[in-house]
Amino acid sequence: MISQKPPVLKTVRPLKIPGRDVDWQRALCKNADNPDRFHVDDYGDMKRITDEAIAMCNTPCPIKNECFIYGYENRLDGVWGGTTSRQRNQMRKKGMAA
């Protein structure tokens, strides 16, 4: 399965989440020194990098909730809204809604 990468936050128009206007320009990760850290998951050697990405989300980011919803509903890989794809998959299995 090919991992989907999020938009380049410095140039993208706001992505749509039904019923919400999200200004992705407010995301703290848009200025990350290594934006690729958000495209990995918490497996093996990548755990430290993933933990760094999650820490940035928990700073707190002003759009963390919307980011989580976007990653959850679109079944994206990597860190979205302070969660990994593994965590979001576990939430789905438990029947939790975004």
Structure description:
With 98 residues, this protein is mainly alpha-helical. The chain has a domain of 65 residues. 31% of the residues lie in helices and 4% in strands. The chain is built from 3 helices and 2 strands, in the order E-E-H-H-H. Strands 1-2 form a two-stranded antiparallel sheet. The radius of gyration is 13 Å and the shape is flat. About 8% of the residues have low confidence.
Instruction: Specify the structural class.
Output: mainly alpha
Oligomer: single chain
Bulk shape = flat
Which regions contain 5 or more consecutive residues with pLDDT less than 50? 7-14
> What is the number of beta strands?
2
- So how many helices? 3
Please summarize the sheet with the most strands. Answer: 2 strands, antiparallel
Radius of gyration: 13 Å
Query: How many angstroms separate the termini?
Result: 23 Å
Beta percentage is: under 5%
**SSE series:** EEHHH
Give the helix level as a range of percent: 25-40%
Q: If you average the pLDDT, what whole number results?
A: 78
Strand order of the largest sheet: 1-2
Q: What are the defining features of this structure?
A:
two-stranded antiparallel ribbon, 2 strands, 3 helices, 31% helix, mainly alpha, 98 residues, single chain, flat
Topology:
Blueprint: E1 16-17, E2 20-21, H1 47-57, H2 64-73, H3 85-93
Antiparallel strand pairs: 1-2
Gist?
With 98 residues, the protein is mainly alpha-helical. Helix content is 31%, strand content 4%.
